[in-house]
Write a structure and sequence with these properties.
The complex is a heterotrimer of chains A (189), B (148) and C (594). With 189 residues, chain A is mostly helical. Chain A has helices spanning 2-25, 40-73, 81-107, 118-126, 132-157, 161-188. The longest helix of chain A has 34 residues, at 40-73. In chain C, 63% of the residues lie in helices and 15% in strands. Chain C is rod-shaped, with a radius of gyration of 64 Å. Classes of the chains: A mainly alpha (189), B alpha/beta (148), C alpha+beta (594).
């Protein structure tokens, strides 16, 4: 019968629609979105990165403080013009760096330590054999290198734009200073 | 009656029947004049002839050679000159068909030939003295066939 | 009716199937949502739990640091500083975790930042305090105020942490409430849906089962019918064909080919192929009939001849009826029957009938003519006898008169016989006209015919009022006449005949005499007299032709009268029955159907 055929069509259509509706109601939400609040693996990864960042930031902060203290203690101990210059510059720059570091740390909820590497200072002061400036410069070089390495490492592991920007900024400065230090070392010692 | 005589004609092919007929009228001694004819042709020739004296009553047999009674009846009824003739069918048979046909064709009465001479005389007397006007006016199939 | 059930059931089942599928999919969707909600809910709980744990950890680290630091202040032993030294790093780790998992509402983010600042200031405070201790400035005013500041910071931290935890917990509860309302509703709903689906499935299962049983039964019947039809075809010389209206195709059954004198499936079933077999004279009419069938979708009975390949001619009766199946397709199912045998027999019968009729007519004719022609000479004899009696009686001797008398008697007898035979032949005439006649008139006529005898015997005739019936008038007249004459003739010597004629309308079931008769109403007319009667054992005999119970000396008679009566009654499809008692009388009962 003709009526029969029509009903067949209608029923098939209804079937298709109902299938569609029920599939749609499933509300598929795969874990493709890494910013999903409930995805454990991604969270864990990020947490690890955060921890690393915090650690490195702390190390860099300590190095920074040490550098500042060192540059501070050059006052009156060296008469070399270049050394005095560079130590002043370093102190200024590192203070700026310290400020940047503190700002970023505050933003990123990282607590930066306030301490310095005592050993370095002691070594600097206790070593009477060599020239203070030389030791100083050598130490500075080492510290700067260390700092640079840390910063590069940080830049590698971080996914955060802020960190990357900071590291770039600081690295420029540090590299320049390192260059200067190495030049002075070469020319004078 | 205008005439003295009652003129009677019989048309019958049977010799014996003609004899009975004339003998009967002889014995009846009514004022009748009887003529007989042997067959239909003779009868019609006579009736159609110029100087024919048309009968008052015509007794017509049905089974005649050359021209039978039905044919004669038709001719007579078709002829306006012969409308005054009272026609009595005088036949051996009393079959429904013959009675019906002759009634329809206009015969006045139907007589079955009786088998006794006495009866014959009785019938003839009755027929001859019948008041034909009266009879024809109230003619129907019941009184068409003469009851003996 | 069966068609409708099945078609209704097909739609019904489809609908049920679709509803079930829909419900199942619905259930599936709901279940998925439900489960993912559950999962999310539990994940949220875990997260909140983790946040709380981390915050507690932070608190604990700070407390340890504070503790250690205080110990150091008290004892100036730097070993106590260990927790203090590691605290910062551990707190950083906790913060690293908290950054990711704490609810990222703006409030909570602010809280986190504030907490971090507090902790930062706490550590600075610790450093300051350490500096004081190292430099030996313990318990000074500055030191005390520093110490006090530390307490304040600690309190703020504690407060902040509990604030954050509360916020987190509240958030959890809100979300839980949301989920809860969803979750409560869903299981019951799903359960009901499942039940409903189950019910639907059971219903459709039972329906399908039923239908299946029905179809099996129908199938069995059909296969039996099919077998019966095939057998019927073969035995009855039928052939079936089907014309599919829409596609204009024919199918012929095997037996149809056999009827045409061919082997089954000898050729393609087409109209043209069949037409080849139709007799050339009938082809035009046949084609016209088929055309009309195609237009009107119906084929009433058609008759035509076919010529088999071996030359024999057969007569065929064809018929077709429209059949519309479930899907609305039209087909005409028809059959052809070889009726040649019937036709032949029919023709034979017709021939014989004609012959019989001719014979009958001849015999009747003969009978009539003979009787009629015999009348003539007899009449002459009687007339001449009467003339002799009249004229010559005196001239004859006694014996001569006696002889004459004897001749007269014989002649009279002969006349009676001839009259009766004539009557008998008249009642035999094939064309009988039935006319509505008032029977009273016929009775009167009969009475008039025997008027003389009635007067002579001083007979008394009484009669009921008779009805008007459709009869052959002259025959019924004859009937009444014969019965009256008999009653008058066979009257007692010294008694005046009394004849009673009665009438009654009876139903066949009420009268014994009408037991084997088709159910109907009959006019019952009785003629009863007080004559000499007869022995009842002769009741059937007297109706036979020429049968007499007395010799002609006692009572004149030809033995034909009652036979004529019976014949007349037969012509009217009626019954005549005689009852007699010797010396009492006779009763003749006539039944005429209305």
């Amino acid at each position: 019968m003709i009526i029969n055929k029509n009903i067949k069509k209608q029923l098939t259509l209804t079937l298709i629609i109902s299938v569609g509706v029920s599939i749609f109601s499933c509300d598929f939400d795969r874990d493709e979105n890494e910013n999903n609040l409930y995805n454990n693996e991604a969270i864990n990864k990020r947490v690890q990165v955060n921890i690393e960042e915090a650690k490195i930031m702390s190390d860099i902060a300590i190095l920074n403080e040490t550098l500042i203290a060192m540059s501070d203690s050059v006052k009156g101990k060296s008469n070399n013009y270049h050394v005095k210059n560079i130590s002043n510059k370093l102190k200024k720059d590192n203070l700026k760096i310290k400020k940047s570091l503190n700002e970023l740390a505050e933003k990123k909820l990282i607590l930066l330590p306030n301490k310095i590497d005592e050993n370095e200072i002691l070594e600097l002061h206790e070593n009477e054999k060599a020239d203070f400036s030389e030791i100083y410069l050598k130490k500075i070089e080492a510290l700067l290198k260390n700092q640079i390495t840390q910063l590069e490492y940080l830049s590698n592991i971080t996914n955060d734009v802020d960190f990357k920007v900071l590291t770039v900024k600081i690295l420029v400065n540090l590299n320049y200073n390192l260059n200067q230090t190495q030049k002075i070392l070469k020319t004078n010692y | 009656m205008p005439n003295d005589y009652i003129h009677i004609i019989l048309a019958d092919d049977d010799e014996d029947d003609r004899l009975f007929f004339t003998d009967a009228f002889d014995e009846l001694k009514m004022n009748t004049k009887v003529n007989t004819f042997n067959d239909g042709v003779e009868l019609m020739d006579y009736l159609n002839s110029e100087d024919a004296i048309l009968p008052n009553v015509l007794f017509l047999d049905l089974n005649m050679p050359l021209k039978n009674g039905i044919e004669c009846l038709n001719e007579i009824k078709a002829n306006s000159k012969m409308s005054d003739i009272a026609i009595a069918i005088y036949s051996t048979s009393a079959s429904e068909e013959d009675i019906e046909e002759t009634f329809v064709l206009g015969a006045n009465i139907y007589i079955k030939k009786p088998s006794s001479f006495k009866q014959l005389k009785k019938v003839l007397a009755e027929v001859v003295s019948m008041n034909w006007q009266y009879h024809t006016n109230s003619l129907n199939k019941d009184n068409f066939l003469m009851r003996l | 009716m069966i068609k409708r059930i099945i078609s209704k059931s097909a739609i019904f089942l489809r609908i049920i199937f679709l509803i079930s599928v829909f419900l199942i999919l619905l259930i599936g969707g709901f279940t998925y949502k439900h489960i993912s909600n559950l999962t999310n809910s539990s994940k949220l709980v875990v997260t909140t739990f983790k946040v709380n744990v981390e915050l507690e950890k932070v608190m604990s680290y700070l407390k340890d640091a504070e503790n250690g630091h205080r110990n150091y202040i008290l004892t100036k032993d730097t070993t106590h500083l260990e927790p203090y030294l590691t605290a910062r790093e551990k707190v950083n780790e906790s913060f690293a975790e908290l950054k990711e998992i704490a609810n990222h509402g703006p409030v909570q983010e602010e809280n986190l930042k504030t907490l971090s600042k507090y902790i930062d200031s706490l550590f600075r405070n610790f450093t300051q305090t350490s500096a004081f201790v190292e430099n030996g400035f313990a318990l000074t005013e500055e030191f005390k105020s520093n110490f006090f500041e530390e307490k304040i910071i600690m309190d703020s931290i504690r407060h902040k942490i509990s604030e954050m935890m509360d916020l987190e917990n509240r958030h959890l509860q809100e979300r839980q409430k949301q989920y809860q309302s969803n979750l409560e509703f869903t299981p019951l709903f799903l359960y009901l849906m499942l039940l409903l689906t189950l019910v639907l499935i059971i219903v459709s299962y039972s329906k399908i089962n039923n239908d299946f049983k029905n179809i099996k039964i129908i199938n069995n019947q059909l296969s039996i019918f099919k077998e019966a039809t095939i057998q019927l075809e073969t035995v009855g010389k039928h052939g079936n064909w089907v014309w599919y209206v829409e596609s204009n195709k024919y199918t012929f059954s095997d037996n149809l080919y056999r009827v045409l004198g061919e082997k089954p499936r000898a050729f393609e079933p087409t109209f043209e192929a069949f037409l080849e077999f139709v007799h050339p004279d009938d082809r035009k009419k046949f084609s016209a009939d088929v055309e009309r069938m195609m237009k009107e979708e119906d084929l009433p009975f058609t008759y035509y001849r076919i010529i088999k390949k071996d030359g024999t001619v057969k007569h065929i009766k064809g018929y077709g009826k429209l059949l519309i199946n479930n899907d609305g397709e039209k087909r005409i199912v028809g059959n052809i029957t070889d009726i040649s045998d019937e036709i032949e027999r029919f023709l034979e019968l017709e021939e014989r009938n004609l012959e019989l009729e001719k014979n009958n007519a001849e015999l009747s004719e003969f009978n009539y003519v003979a009787s009629h022609d015999l009348q003539e000479p007899l009449r002459k004899i009687q007339t001449f006898i009467s003339r002799l009696e009249d004229k010559e009686a005196k001239n004859l001797s006694a014996s001569g008169n006696q002889y004459l008398e004897r001749i007269k008697v014989s002649a009279t007898r002969m006349r009676l016989l001839i009259d009766d035979l004539l009557q008998f032949s008249r009642t035999n005439k094939p064309d009988k006209e039935f006319v509505l006649t008032n029977l009273n008139e016929l009775l009167e006529q009969a009475k008039q015919d025997v008027a003389e005898t009635i007067i002579e015997k001083q007979a008394i005739i009484t009669s009921d009022v008779l009805p008007t019936v459709s009869v052959i008038p002259f025959q019924v007249h004859q009937l009444f006449l014969n019965l009256l004459s008999n009653s008058l003739k066979y009257s007692k010597v010294a008694e005046a005949p009394v004849i009673k004629i009665t009438y009654e309308l009876v139903h066949s079931k009420d009268d014994i005499n009408l037991i084997n008769i088709p159910k109907n109403e009959y006019h019952k007319i009785t003629f009863s007299d007080n004559g000499i009667g007869f022995e009842q054992q002769y009741a059937n005999q007297i109706f036979e032709l020429f049968n007499r119970l007395h010799n002609k000396q006692e009572y004149s008679g030809t033995g034909v009268g009652l036979s004529i009566c019976k014949k007349i009654i037969d012509n009217h499809n009626g019954i005549i029955i005689a009852n007699g008692e010797p010396n009492i009388g006779a009763i003749f009962t006539i039944y005429l159907p209305i």
